[in-house]
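Lecture 7, part 2: worked example. A protein chain together with 3-methyl-2-oxobutanoic acid.
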Amino acid sequence: MAVTTQQLIQWKQQGRRIVALTAWDYAIAQVLDQAGVDLILVGDSLAMVTLGYETTLPLTLEEMLHHAASVRRGVKQALIAVDLPFLTYQESPQQAIHSAGRVLKETGAQAVKLEGGYPIMAETVSRLVQAGIPVLGHVGLTPQSVHMLGYRQQGKTPDAGERILSEAIALEQAGAFGVVLEHIPASLAAQITQKLTIPTIGIGAGLHCDGQVLVTTDVLGLSQKQPPFAKSYANLRETITQAVQDYSNEVRERQFPEEKS
Ligand code: KIV
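Predicted complex, written out as structure tokens:
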């Protein structure tokens, strides 16, 4: 059975952890889906890890639609949420509905994710939900605000923590089906997770979130640089380099292809 937003909320109630990873194309999405990932996020981190931009800011809606549609074609079970790129939703709720509507219509993904909380973004989330568009919130470190926040851990002072907590609550009240908590203290993430009835998906936010998400290039050991909270479960950069060198050697030594008699 395909994963739904309601299912994610139920899993929180049952204490079943949610597994989320990012994907950027058909091949990787197919592997993640067949491996049993619950939630596939077409994150705008693809701007950096796949398209080579320095930040997520230059990514366009057209580029995101192109990648999200290819991810969708590779997925049968997981729920797919697509990041709305920088400045495709911040101007007004109308702009957000237009962009998110294009994501759902043109890619077949089931949900969108956007960054920020109370008060402006909560209003936008409420309008999207009223239009029938499921929304995943994202608070804490929000990379689209890199020029304001940097990539530093957020919510370290009591005031900053309170603000992030009230943003998460406002997103839930606005109808978000879940909220990503990025790079905040574990104790704050635990407090938010306890207060909300929708699931929290943590990245660099400790063990007590309802689920975890990582950028898949980090998990696979493909990234050249990765954040301190990421963990690699393979070293594909090394594996791929070795495979390419073996192939190159065999071509140069005339060992591949084998001579047919
Ligand atoms: O863009 C992204 O990959 C994200 C994360 C939460 C992993 O937003």
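The mean pLDDT is 97. The first strand starts at residue 18 and ends at 22. Keep this in mind for problem set question 3.
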